[in-house]
Specification:
- This protein has 700 residues and is mainly alpha-helical.
- It has a domain of 84 residues.
- The protein has 23 helices and no strands.
- It is flat and about 140 Å long.
- It starts with a helix and ends in a 7-residue tail after the last helix.
- Keywords: Coiled coil.
- It holds the Pfam family Vps53_N.
- This is VPS53 subunit of GARP complex.
- One of its GO terms (biological process) is retrograde transport, endosome to Golgi.
Length: 700
């Protein structure tokens, strides 16, 4: 019974002393020990076996027991000492807590005293600074009052001086004084309820009104609407009056500018009336020469009278452009039947040159219209539509020489004056479009005549099939027309020109390319196996001659060039035309036409080679293979087919060297056509004897 109680006590003790691994690890780190008794996984049986490994070691059992008892007594003494040392800990802790509470109460009392003293100090500071704040407010109000009185004195004196100077026309002094009076008057906006201030403000407005009317009268006297200009030139009074007008209502400035420009251009309206000979397009240079002289005259006589920021010279030029555009539009409507292409282009060229002159001399700051769209520089290419646009002077020379590899020139900056006069020619550009239609028709006819006169191109085995020279000439001419038309207009005329381009692209494809493709023959002169055996290698001639094969390859290469260049032409036209009209530029139909020419050319080449092989296959199927008694290396029909392939394919390959993808298409189409036909004829060769079957069938 006692043993059971002891076992239960030991188990309970072990359960109580069971520590978590984290706690056990912490104890081992704080109190490291090598004693097996201190280990968490201590095993009494293993420990005893360690002390007494053998029966002979039991002889020392008494000594071991004594050592363990001694160790137990020491542990008991240590535990007893620790327990006794903890007897007074609770009492000491309560005493320390009471002392801490007393200290906190004392600290709280001191903090409360400090707070009370701070509030008293703040109250004392407020009482001390109250008088100082009152003095600060009084000083601020006094300063404001003195400043306002000074402004009022300046305003009253300035208004009196302004009225007196206005009567004496002392515009130089008025310009400086008026600006100062207006600046001072701004300080009194919040005091307009005071009658005296409101009265001064009304006097200033009245003075401004009187000044405006007086300055306009002075300019009317100096530059009357009827009569000649003032012979003595501008005076200092008018120069100072312009400075005053800068300060007055902007309408005064606009009225001065309007009257001066109208008077300055009055002579122009008389000289170039609609019924005058110099008003017609052939003498349009005289209009621009007249305004250039007037600008020089203005700079000499009136350049210093008007402020620089008024840009009077540019305003005169801009108004001249507006008047000229209106007058030219009117006279062209009246004499529309007299407008010829050369005359129209001459007038447009001179007008665009004048607009360029204006862009070099003036900034365009007085214009209300936006500047031109910026055109991105195209990448380098041999295609004429990807080159830099030539200047008008160089266009004709570049077209004649066909030089498509000229060094690039930097693009000119945008011209804000572009179209300011030349816009009036746009309604009459149908004359130019009709002329280009006629010229392109004659060009196509010349291409046809030249082709018939010169004949097909020479065989080319070095650099591939030659592109017809007429193709490059056509697209260079297209480029010239496109550039020229885009300089005239980027609106509906460009759409009309695009329609003309489409028309003659189709005509070129039909008359020059498709119209000159060799026609297939229907002769049925076939070959027999006996004739194949007698013929020598290389004696047969293909259905198309060498010249005809080269012509087909040249037309194919030309159609490919036209297809790629037409795509670039479409992109370039979309760059030139207005954004709202881009959707109307579509050359897909023309590109499809050239694709059809390419397909037809490839089909002709395939049909030619296929037809050349037909007699051999027919003879093969008609031969009595069951009667063959002797065999060779390969059958005669195989030799004939290989002969035709060796004759045609190298020629086609060399002439399509620059268009390798279409040579590949030719090979694929021929294989797709010939192989099924070969298999069909092969099945017709029945019955076949054992000797005939030994004959070589492969087309290696």
């Amino acid at each position: 019974m006692m043993e059971e109680e002891e076992l239960e006590f030991v188990e309970e003790l072990e359960a109580v002393l069971q520590l978590t691994p984290e706690v056990q690890l912490a104890i081992e780190q704080v109190f490291p020990s090598q004693d097996p008794l201190d280990r968490a996984d201590f095993n009494a049986v293993e420990y005893i076996n360690t002390l007494f490994p053998t029966e002979q070691s039991l002889a020392n059992i008494d000594e071991v027991v004594n050592k363990i008892r001694l160790k137990i007594r020491r542990l008991d003494d240590n535990i007893r000492t620790v327990v006794r040392g903890q007897t007074n800990v609770g009492q000491d802790g309560r005493q320390a807590l009471e002392e801490a509470q007393k200290a906190i109460q004392q600290l709280f009392g001191k903090i409360k005293d400090i707070k009370d003293k701070a509030e008293k100090s703040e109250q004392m500071v407020k009482e001390i600074t109250r008088d100082i704040k009152q003095l600060d407010h009084a000083k601020r109000h006094l300063t404001t009052s003195i400043t306002t009185l000074n402004h009022l004195h300046m305003l009253a004196g300035g208004v009196d001086s302004l009225e007196a100077m206005t009567r004496r026309r002392q515009y130089g002094e008025v310009a400086n004084l008026l600006q100062g009076v207006m600046n001072v008057l701004e300080h009194f906006h919040k005091y307009m309820g005071i009658p005296q201030i409101r009265q001064l403000s009304e006097r200033v407005k009245a003075a401004q009104t009187e000044l405006g009317q007086q300055i306009l009268a002075d300019f009317e006297e100096a530059f009357p609407s009827q009569g000649t200009k003032r012979p003595g030139g501008p005076s200092n009074v008018l120069r100072d009056a312009c400075l005053v007008a800068n300060i007055l209502d902007p309408r005064i400035k606009q009225e001065i500018i309007k009257k001066f420009i109208k008077q300055h251009l009055s002579e122009y309206l008389v000289l170039f009336q609609e019924n005058q000979d110099v008003a017609w397009l052939d003498k349009i240079d005289r209009r621009y020469a007249w305004i250039k002289r007037q600008l020089v005259d203005y700079e000499e006589k009136y350049g210093r009278m008007f402020p620089r920021e008024w840009c009077m010279a540019e305003r005169i030029a801009v108004e001249f452009c507006h008047v000229t555009r209106t007058e030219l539009a009117k006279i062209m409507r009246t004499r529309a039947k007299e407008i010829e292409v050369k005359l129209l282009l001459f007038a447009i060229q001179r007008t665009t040159n004048f607009e360029g002159f204006l862009a070099k001399r003036f900034s365009g700051c007085t214009l209300t219209d936006g500047t031109l769209k910026k055109l991105e520089s195209p990448p380098p290419s041999t295609n004429p539509f990807l080159e830099d646009e030539p200047t008008p002077e160089m266009e004709e020379l570049a077209t004649e020489k066909g030089d498509l590899d000229q060094p690039k020139k930097p693009k000119a900056p945008d011209n804000p004056f572009h179209g300011i006069v030349s816009k009036c020619f746009e309604p009459h550009l149908y004359v130019y479009i009709e002329s280009q239609d006629k010229n392109l028709g004659e060009l196509i006819d010349r291409f046809v005549a030249d082709f018939k006169a010169q004949g097909p191109p020479k065989p080319n085995t070095d650099e591939g099939g030659a592109v017809l020279p007429s193709c490059a000439d056509l697209f260079v001419y297209y480029k010239k027309c496109m550039v020229q038309c885009s300089q005239l207009s980027t609106g509906e005329p460009m759409i009309a020109l695009t329609t003309i381009f489409q028309k003659y692209l189709r005509e070129y494809a039909w008359k020059i390319l498709s119209g000159n493709l060799p026609k297939t023959t229907t002769s049925s002169g076939g070959l027999t196996i006996s004739s194949l055996l007698k013929e020598k290698e290389g004696s047969e001639v293909a259905k198309f001659t060498l010249e005809e094969l080269c012509l087909i390859c040249s037309i194919l290469s030309t159609a490919e060039y036209c297809l790629a260049t037409t795509q670039q032409l479409e992109e370039k036209l979309k760059e030139k035309v207005d954004v709202s009209l881009i959707e109307r530029i579509n050359l897909t139909g023309e590109m499809d036409t050239f694709s059809t020419v390419i397909s037809s050319s490839i089909q002709l080449l395939v049909q030619d080679l296929d037809a050349a092989c037909d007699p051999s296959l027919t003879a093969m199927s008609k031969m009595q293979w069951q009667n063959v008694e002797h065999v060779g290396d390969q059958s005669p029909y195989v030799t004939s087919v290989i002969l035709h392939i060796k004759q045609n394919v190298p020629i086609i390959r060399d002439n399509l060297a620059s268009t390798r993808k279409y040579f590949t298409q030719f090979c694929i189409k021929f294989a797709n056509s010939f192989i099924p036909k070969f298999i069909t004829h092969l099945f017709k060769c029945k019955p076949i004897s054992m000797v005939g079957a030994e004959w070589r069938w492969s087309l290696q």
